[in-house]
Amino acid sequence: MKRKLAAAIGIAGIMVSIAACGSDDGNEGSGDTGADAKELTVWLTVDAQNNWPELVKAADAAVQKKHPGIKINHEYYGWPDKNTKLDAVLATDKAPDVVEMGNTEMLAYMVNGAFAPVDPAKFDNSSAWLDGLKASVTYQGKTYGVPYYAGGRVGNWRKNLFASAGVKSAPKTYEELTAALDKVQKKEGDKFSAWYQPTRDWYAAMSFVYDAGGSIATEEGGQWKAGLSSPESVKGLTAFKNVVDTYMHGDKTKDESDRYIVYGQGKSGMIFGAAWEGATAADPKNDKTGKLRDNLENFVMPGPSGKNLPVFLGGSDLAVPVKSDAQAVAAEWINAFAGSSGQKGLIGKGNLPNNKTDLAPLKNDPATAVPATAAESSWFVPMAPGWGKVEKAQILQTMLQDIGTGKKSVEAAAKAADAAIDEVINAK
Question: pTM higher than 0.90, yes or no?
Answer without folding.
Answer: no
